[in-house]
Amino acid sequence: MKDLLAKVRNQNLFSTGETVVVAVSGGADSVALLDILTRLDTERLKLIVAHLNHCLRGAESDGDERFVADLAARYHIPFLSIRVDVGSFAAAEGLSLEDAGRQARYAFFREVARRHGATSIALAHHMDDQAETVLIRLLRGSGGAGLSAMAAVGDNMLKRPLLKVTRAELERYLNERGLNWRTDSTNADTAILRNSIRHELIPLLKKYNPKVTERLAATAEILASDEELLEQLTDETFSRLARSEDESVRLGIASLLGERRGLRLRLYRHALCELRGDLMRIALTHLDAIDRLVASSRPNASLNLPDDLRVERSYDELRFTSVTKPIEQSWEMTISGEGSYPLPNGMTLSVQRLPRPADLVTGSEKIAYVSAEAAPFPWLVRPFAAGDRFTPLGLNGSQKVKELFINKKLPPHERSRVPLVFSEGDVIWVAGVRLAEKGRVKPAADAVLRLEILEITP
């Protein structure tokens, strides 16, 4: 047990006295994680247990929620949970259950962190999970970034303290500590790719190398280090060669041809990611097609990519843009107090004064609570415009609203539809996307204003 605690402590993932949201499903991994974090005495972490009920297994899911609530109570740790119909969410968004569940969980965990001033979200992924992820991405086709799999320190406060710990070590730890856990019945369903890899492929691979899990995890760690170096090179080269303007990214043909092919492909990826926010549905065939466009003897040509992305060559310049142009909207509305306000873009903003709820986590980005004292009326509501800035809740410095949209993977043609709510000239809410620090509800507040935006998507 001491060795396992040392593996976690020696990574120095947490600061002394830090507030940490611990994602606890009730399974063996997360139960072990919670217990380990409570035993990091020198760090004196302030823990919050967060649990999302996926509503996929009926009474079993409800039992998991009660189990985690009781577990948190035994440790005298605050407990927050939410119920999300992941099945309906997956069907509505065209996602797999696994992807829908992941999106719902991470959105909830980040909301809990924002509301409670947490600076880390602890996840229970371990070495076996890492090995499975490498194999999944290898089978689906992936480069160095994908095969790097999961990082101990990820984006948006995510921390994975158990990546150097195996599943077997965790189960030994739980048994030695006399701790119980819940078992998800769907974990045995080999129709699910990850389960098939866990129960069928990895046991087969262990016949060739008994330490295949460790080797796969080590490979991911090596690739992650290489990827960090390559991304730094790409960022520096992109900053030197690229120009971003008017919802487009431009690169000089001569400059591109002066770089090696591997770096050129990374520059194309970087340009597309900056424009859209992710690289979903962008494959090597698309990057190869862009590279042929650059090397072509034709001075003018174009290429259409998935999701309305377009690459155009015009003489000595390569331009990345979106086929679907934003529909410019120009309107303003004054909000004088409580009520329901139909907006000119077809949405409706509801404002209601309520006693301060015990929990400010709404479970929906379309609903928010703001302070009536910090954000006095009248308010101004208008569409997003280029150059708008705000201070996100929980942060000190300002951020471009456009950067928020990129991080949220909101396509350019949808951005001008998003209303911004202003009080005293400052943004208090990027409606349906992110709260601002300006409207923060303080613990002593007796009442709050509940905001809801309807029909946030086209």
UniProtKB/TrEMBL annotation:
<protein>
    <recommendedName>
        <fullName>tRNA(Ile)-lysidine synthase</fullName>
        <ecNumber>6.3.4.19</ecNumber>
    </recommendedName>
</protein>
<keyword id="KW-0963">Cytoplasm</keyword>
<comment type="similarity">
    <text>Belongs to the tRNA(Ile)-lysidine synthase family.</text>
</comment>
<dbReference type="Pfam" id="PF01171">
    <property type="entry name" value="ATP_bind_3"/>
</dbReference>
<dbReference type="GO" id="GO:0006400">
    <property type="term" value="P:tRNA modification"/>
</dbReference>
<keyword id="KW-0547">Nucleotide-binding</keyword>
<keyword id="KW-0067">ATP-binding</keyword>
<dbReference type="InterPro" id="IPR014729">
    <property type="entry name" value="Rossmann-like_a/b/a_fold"/>
</dbReference>
<dbReference type="GO" id="GO:0032267">
    <property type="term" value="F:tRNA(Ile)-lysidine synthase activity"/>
</dbReference>
<dbReference type="GO" id="GO:0005524">
    <property type="term" value="F:ATP binding"/>
</dbReference>
<feature type="binding site">
    <location>
        <begin position="25"/>
        <end position="30"/>
    </location>
    <ligand>
        <name>ATP</name>
    </ligand>
</feature>
<dbReference type="InterPro" id="IPR011063">
    <property type="entry name" value="TilS/TtcA_N"/>
</dbReference>
<dbReference type="GO" id="GO:0005737">
    <property type="term" value="C:cytoplasm"/>
</dbReference>
<comment type="function">
    <text>Ligates lysine onto the cytidine present at position 34 of the AUA codon-specific tRNA(Ile) that contains the anticodon CAU, in an ATP-dependent manner. Cytidine is converted to lysidine, thus changing the amino acid specificity of the tRNA from methionine to isoleucine.</text>
</comment>
<dbReference type="InterPro" id="IPR012795">
    <property type="entry name" value="tRNA_Ile_lys_synt_N"/>
</dbReference>
<feature type="domain" description="Lysidine-tRNA(Ile) synthetase C-terminal">
    <location>
        <begin position="379"/>
        <end position="451"/>
    </location>
</feature>
<dbReference type="Pfam" id="PF11734">
    <property type="entry name" value="TilS_C"/>
</dbReference>
<keyword id="KW-0819">tRNA processing</keyword>
<dbReference type="InterPro" id="IPR012094">
    <property type="entry name" value="tRNA_Ile_lys_synt"/>
</dbReference>
<keyword id="KW-0436">Ligase</keyword>
<dbReference type="InterPro" id="IPR012796">
    <property type="entry name" value="Lysidine-tRNA-synth_C"/>
</dbReference>
